Predict the structure.
Amino acid sequence: MRAIEVRNLRKLYPKKIPLPFRKVEWFEALKGISFEVKRGELFGLLGPNGAGKTTTIKILTTLLEPTSGEAKVLGFDVVKEAREVRRRINLVAEGERTLYWRLTAYENLRYFASIYYVPRSEAEKRIRELLKMVGLWDRRNDLVMNYSRGMKQRLAIAKALINDPEVLFLDEPTLGLDVQSAVFVRDLVKRLVKEEGKTVLLTTHYMHEAEQLCDRIAIIDQGKIIALDTPEGLKKLVKKDTIVEVKVKNYTGNNPFGLVKVEENNGTIVLRGSLGEEEIPRLVEFLVRNNAKVLSVEVKEPTLEDVFIKLTGRGLRD
Ligand SMILES: Nc1ncnc2c1ncn2[C@@H]1O[C@H](COP(=O)(O)OP(=O)(O)OP(=O)(O)O)[C@@H](O)[C@H]1O
Ligand SMILES: [Mg+2]
């Protein structure tokens, strides 16, 4: 049995709040996606803003019903057997605000342990283990409101582990964290899979995070899965290409030679894409003729962003 099975999942949202007599228009946030996650796998949904990542996670965690299609978690249907699913999973939502800031970390976990009916005899031990695992044991008696953002996120993960879920869902687990906290969280996620045998499905729009962490990645864009493979497998799609990155100032045109804008900083634009080596001088000439100031041209190692650019003609960070 697979940890997660998704078949042809669709989700329509009403574009406006439906009022009596107002015709509802629908927006198709998920256009029929299918994928499977194995037990003990660290699986990533990678995609830009609005791709449908959170929608997918909400359906899999029974917070939202799909419009059509089917999804199973540990063999249980997320709609018809939602209770069975909920007992075996947990979720760290995007920008999680479900911790009680006026309680200490320890009190928070005590509270959530009781919500999940963790027996008192076990709760003490589990809370201690979890707080140690996320590096907050020494700070257990501090109020959560005095925690840094990274500490809050670590506690949110500990909270999500309180019911010892078999499958853990993480929506953008490192969003808005400082570098050090993000490294800690990624490490923690890895340990959960390698050492605790959990199955993890995470979403991210950071390609490096997906590449570093995930056993397999589904690249999702505009409600569709456009590629699904191991990081290495995905990068094979651009292996034979020469990836060029150009930094320019004062360039106002768009996509020269099929390169796309991947960054913009104080008027400096970074363009990136695959290009035949013999085309590089012609590209530079073209940019200069269009009054752009070329700051650098570099050949780069392909990343998942290049896969995304190749498949969509757009950058992942747009
Ligand atoms: N409750 C809602 N009502 C209407 N439209 C919605 C609703 N929730 C999401 N959408 C739309 O569905 C699409 C997918 O949204 P979703 O939140 O799943 O994207 P995402 O991949 O998680 O993006 P992000 O990276 O910004 O978190 C977006 O276009 C969004 O505007
Ligand atoms: Mg989201």
The chain has a mean pLDDT of 94.
